[in-house]
Amino acid sequence: MSVTNKKQFKVTLDSKEVELCVVRPNVKQRQEGQKIYNKAFRDAVESGAILRGKVNNVMREQNLWDDNKEAEYRKLLEKINGAERKIKSGGIKLNQAKDLALEMRKDRAELRALTSERSSLDNNTAEGQADNAQFNYWVSSCTVYSETGKTYFSNYEDYLNRDDDPATGQAAGSLAMLLYNLDPDYEKKLPENQFLAKYNFVDEELHLVDKTGRRVDSEGRLVNKDGRYINEAGELIDIHGNRVNEEGDYVVEFSPFLDDEGKPIQEKVETVKTTAAPEIVVEAAKVPAEEVKN
Q1: Is 79 exposed, middle or buried (CB count within 10 Å of its CB: 0-12, 13-18, 19+)?
Q2: Fewer Cβ neighbours under 10 Å: the N or C end of the chain?
Q3: How far is residue 134's CA from residue 157's CA, in Å, rounded to a whole number?
C-alpha cells in the first residue's frame, strides 16, 4: 500500500499512546458506502429534506439571502481579488501592502460569515445528509490500528456512538484530508498570509508579531498567547495600559478617602456579634455506696 493511500495519526487511550491510521476505502467499502448513501438520501427525502438544487430558492424564501447579500458577496470577492493583485504586483510601500493583507483577512472572514447560512443549509439537504452518512461509514470501516491493520471501530453504529472517543475526530479529519485532498496548511497558503509570513509580520501560528517577534494586535499593542493585553514586563493590562489581574480587576494601591478638610477617613470596622454558647452542666452519675466501697 502506498503512502498516499493512508494517513497515520496518534491518540492517547487510557494514558497510553496508540498509533492508528485511515486508509482509502476499497471497492467493497465503497459499494457498502453507496448503500448507506442511498438509504440516508431516501430517509431524508421522506422526512421532508430539500434537495441541493433548491437551496437558493429556499434561502430567498426564508430571507436568508437576497439581492443585497448577493451584491455584498460579489463586492467582497472583487475586493479580495483586487488586493491580492496589488500585493503580488508590488511597487508599493511595504506597510501599505501589510495593510492590504490585513484587510484581506477581514474581508475573507466576512465572506465566510456571509456564506455560513448557505453551508449550514446545504448540510441539511437530502444530498448533504446522505454524504455525511456515507462518510461516517467510511470512517468507521477505514480506521485501523497501524500495527495490525485491525479495524478500530466495531461497526458503523459503534462509530456513531463514540462521540467522546479521542480517536473519532482525528479519524474523520484525517480521512477527509485523504479523500478530498484537504490541505492542513490551507490558511498558511492563502495569499495574504503568505505575504505576512514572508515579511515576518506573523509567527508560525499566523498571529501578528512586532519586529522582535512578540505577539501584537492589529494596532501594534502587545498581547499574550490568550490574546489579552500585556505591558513590556508581560503583566496584564487593559486597553488603556492599566494593570489588571487574571479576573480583569484593576491592580492598584488603595489610599483612604478624604473628608472635606482633606483628612483621611477611617473606615468603619464591622464587628461580628457572637452569642456565647450556653453553659452545659453535666451531673455526675450517682454511684451506689456499696459499689464505691468495692
Answers
A1: middle
A2: C
A3: 13
Q: What is the pTM of this model?
A: 0.73
- Grid coordinates of 157: 453504529
Query: Residues 77-104: pLDDT tens digits?
Result: 999 999 999 999 999 999 999 999 999 9
Distance CA(147)–CA(17), nearest Å, equals 13
- The beta strand positions in the chain, using DSSP E, are 6-13, 16-23, 143-145
Output the CA–CA distances (angstroms, integers) from residue 194 to 80, 115, 120, 133, in the order listed: 14, 24, 29, 36
- Grid coordinates given for 231: 505591558
DSSP-derived letter for residue 48 is T
- Residues 131 and 122: their CA atoms lie apart, in Å, by 11
CB 88 within 8 A of CB 191: yes
Strand partners, 49: none
Its sign, for the CA torsion 101, 102, 103, 106, is positive
Q: List all residues 6 or more positions away from 218 whose beta carbon is below 8 Å from its beta carbon.
A: 102, 208
For CA atoms 158, 136, 52, 57, the dihedral sign is positive
Strand order in the sheet with 6-13: 6-13, 16-23, 143-145
Query: What span, in angstroms and rounded, lies between the C-alpha atoms of 134 and 158?
Result: 15
- Name the residue type at position 136: N
Per-residue pLDDT reduced to its tens digit, 28-78: 999 999 999 999 999 999 999 999 999 999 999 988 899 999 999 999 999
